[in-house]
Write a structure and sequence with these properties.
The protein has about 325 residues and is an alpha/beta fold. The protein has seven helices and 17 strands. The strands form five sheets. Strands 12-11-13-14-15-16 form a six-stranded mixed sheet, sandwiched between helices. It has a five-stranded mixed sheet with strand order 1-6-7-4-5, covered by helices on one side. A two-stranded antiparallel sheet has the order 2-3. The radius of gyration is 21 Å and the shape is globular. It starts with 15 loop residues before the first strand and ends in a 28-residue tail after the last strand.
């Protein structure tokens, strides 16, 4: 009698995420230049201690907008987990300012891999575990191009977006685009948190998942294709400067083009050139500079002469300088 066929393998399951909420802004009383008292909004900043399989790993200072995705993206960008399917659940409890991560099979050599840290320029609180720079040589970015018209579309989409920055200031914004289409936008007190949150969002939204069924924290997803969202046709946008950390994290996410409202550091430039990554900075209105990867940018210089249509009701912060964003 022939052996019974093996049952088909169960499809991979996305992690279960809570949907923890906390206020993003607070009202405080200030005195202005005329000696008048007034109420203004300021962004929240709160600690979130990350526990992996009951082991304390790190405390992140965050705005708290999407903490579950921040934790997931942090683990991804620190190279502590290789797949979203290695995570069983992420539970955030703001009453104790903690995030509990349960993995399916543990994290191999976690003590060794988290022993060495490098303090980055991430707003004075960024850090990465040692070995991040060593992985640059192993990253191969896909071929991709961006037209100047698409770049202007990205800049305009950000200019028109209602944000915490416009109401309270003092936060960074990061976004993921597909062409000129805004896929997701994240704000946090540090740009490294914002890019980690986007990395987590990409993991929770595999490539084959239709837009109408994309997962968000709080939704239980029974199964998903084991194909992570590709960064090949995506563009990463940030309001903050392009440091080596931001460039490497973008490359780890497979995104070959990055755009910043701010500038670029020397090491960020060196890493971008090594990777062949297209780094565009000082992107406001019709102006920009391309620091590296110019072969990926399809120039249309005639577009630079066209006037920018002012946004109706736009605040001064929409297109103004970003002194507290660098």
């Amino acid at each position: 009698m022939p052996d019974a066929p093996e049952p088909p393998a169960a499809p991979p399951v996305l992690p279960r995420l809570t949907q923890a909420h906390a206020p993003l802004t607070h009202h405080v009383e200030v005195v202005n230049e005329r000696g008048e008292r007034e109420q203004v909004q300021i962004p929240a900043e709160r600690p979130l201690t990350l526990y992996v399989d009951k082991r304390e790993l790190v405390t992140l200072m965050t705005l708290g907008a999407q903490p579950e995705l921040l934790v997931l993206g942090y683990l991804r960008n620190q190279r502590l987990v290789e797949s979203v399917f290695d995570i069983e659940s992420i539970t955030v409890d703001w009453e104790v300012h903690a995030a509990a991560v349960r993995t399916r099979h543990g994290i191999a050599r976690i003590e060794e891999r988290t022993a060495s840290k490098v303090v980055t320029t991430g707003c004075g609180q960024g850090s990465v575990f040692g070995g991040l720079m060593d992985e640059v040589d192993r990253i191969a970015l896909p071929e991709a191009q961006l037209t100047q018209a698409q770049l202007y579309g990205i800049v305009n989409a950000i200019r028109l977006k209602e944000t915490t920055y416009k109401s309270a200031g003092s936060v960074h914004g990061c976004a993921l685009f597909q062409g000129e289409e805004l896929l997701t936008f994240v704000e946090d007190v540090g740009r490294h948190n914002a890019i980690d949150t986007i990395a987590g969002w990409m993991w929770m939204n595999p490539e084959a998942t239709p837009p109408s069924a994309r997962a968000v924290p709080g939704n239980v997803v029974a199964s998903a294709p084991a194909v992570p969202m590709s960064g090949a046709d995506k563009v990463f946008y940030t309001t903050g400067r392009l440091t080596s950390e931001m460039v490497i994290k973008s490359a780890q996410m497979g995104v070959p083009i990055v755009v910043s409202r701010s500038g670029m550091t020397q090491m960020g430039h060196a890493v971008a050139q090594q990777l062949g990554l297209c780094a565009i900075g000082r992107a406001t209105n019709r102006r920009f500079v391309c620091y590296s990867g110019t072969h990926r940018l399809v120039l249309q210089p005639e577009l630079a002469q066209q006037a920018v249509v002012p946004a109706v009701g736009a605040s001064a912060g929409a297109g103004a300088g970003d002194g507290d964003r660098v």
